[in-house]
Amino acid sequence: xxxxASKLKDLVLAQPPRDLLxxxxxxxxxxxxxVPRSSTVEGAGDMSQRDALLVAxxxxxxxxxxxxxxxxxxxxxxxxxxxxxAVAQRLREVSVIYCITSSRPDITGAFGDETGRVEFxxxxxxAAIRGNRYxxxxxxxxxxxxxxxxxxxxxxxxxxxxxxxxxxxxxxxxMREGHAHAIEELGGxxxxxxxxxxxxxxxxDEVLEQMKRESPEAIAASLSLLxxxxxxxxxxxxxxxxxxxAFLEDLSFKRGENTEFFAPGPFCGTPLRTLPGRIxxxxxxxxxxxxTDPQFVRDAAYRAIQRGLATRLPEYRRTWNEKQKAxxxxxFQCILGKQLEDAIVLTEVHYRDPxxxxxxxxxxxxxxxxxxxxxxxxxxxxAMHSPATNFASHVRAIRGLVVKAYNQAKRFLEYLxxxxxxxxxxxxxxxxxxxxxxxxxxxxxVIPIGLTVESFAPFSAMxxxxxxxxxxxxxxxxxxxxxxxxxxxxxxxxxxxxxxxxLEVRQQVAGIRQATIFDxxxxxxxxxAKNRFDMALREQLSGGANHLLWDGFSSEIDEYFAxxxxxxxxxxxxxxxxxxxxxxxxxxxxxxxxxAQVRCxxxxxxx
Length: 607
Fold this sequence. Notes:
The chain is of the alpha/beta class. Helix content is 52%, strand content 11%. The protein is built from 24 helices and 12 strands. The strands form 4 sheets. The protein has a 5-stranded mixed sheet. It has a 3-stranded mixed sheet with strand order 1-2-3. It has a two-stranded antiparallel sheet with strand order 7-8. Strand 2 and strand 3 form a beta hairpin. The chain starts with a helix and ends in a 20-residue tail after the last helix. The relative contact order is 0.08.
């Protein structure tokens, strides 16, 4: 791996950065269009071609972040570019092989007997799996998550949360749609030039000479479009967005600024270290700030903005934490507000622990009919240390997000179970005032949820293999998900009944320790495809399998966001099983006020 990484570094440094970016992005466009490439990378339909391109883009950022060495040539060399892709593909393959061979299935540790399997999943996810991010939803997420920091953003950068979110969306749009727009606009320029040539009876060269004298701005616009197409111009955020330089600077590494990724030592420069893009997603070149890969922007921008504000405005550190705490504790009900209009929502719920007699707090409690959602929020940073270089630190970060929320949920449910009826309090002017009494026996369905600011798949779904994460009160499995996930669930399950039914099924799957589904989007895809996919999992396990791994269920959701379908079509709906449909017909009177909206509504939620 280290030899391949070093070779990849040399190949990146041998090329002009912008031309190399143009070459790699053109490769991604060709892959999407099914245009075959050279024999150095496998056929256009093979995922390895796309993966090689993505690894190469990651390494362009990494190498430029770590080295200020100027490239050897002034123009792109096709042979070196093809070799770069072949080395990138081989590096990814070798990294995956290492993840397999270095993970011992028989070891025990933080995840009990599952530690070996979890270590393999952690390493392979870190090195190879990119997860699901839907670039069309960037603005929605960042507008929400940056909203509390409007004044600080204006003071430091001169833009508010909405402008920052729109700028980040513009980054995604440029990479997602930039080639198509550039081709369309450039085609218009070419058509105009030919029209003028025919009208005046002159050659194209003569038209261009006249335009240089009479319309230099039109020539500049055409050259800019060519730059977008062939020299990485769509990655130049100084050109593609209206974001201020200070904002982009805080998201960027200068050339040679990162000293860790290629520092001497084990895994030097390999995917098993922390790629610089996980820390700051942009790289500063001579003519602007560049994003080589849109996934880096989505994954790292939030924390980079936080660090930027804290550096430029040190007194804001505590305020950031306080405002983020308030935002995240209300995130569930804010994002899913339409579904919870009839619910009772309590935030910052206080109670006296019957064992320690200390006052404790639950972040949010949502009560709707006979369903209780208990929300515990953790805004801690996801794992930043590679599981290969520091598995203990990697696990510690995960446990900080999962286990702390789980323990808080456990303590609260044990309090609810400590008496037939218990009191809940609010802290008002340093006094605890009773606001409500609750009987746990009133609720048919109790769903404890740990909510994080950032996605940390696959561990959001893998948390159930932690030895201490067992069903609460021996009957309520714990779910972990992120705020990202809520935005997707909100679109695909807009009606209250469908949402609660999904959470019920999702909770049942969380209780099946022998079943692995990668992340929340795969869970949602399985629900859309099979509805009661918990029953399908149990049926397969009853056939003698000791473990199940389901993959690929996110494909329908991926396809929905891949084009412009999401702008004009409703999302795919869950398939309703015959048993569920028959149950709804028996139990829901006609007319049922919610059945017009809900295809798979639990009967007891109908009123």
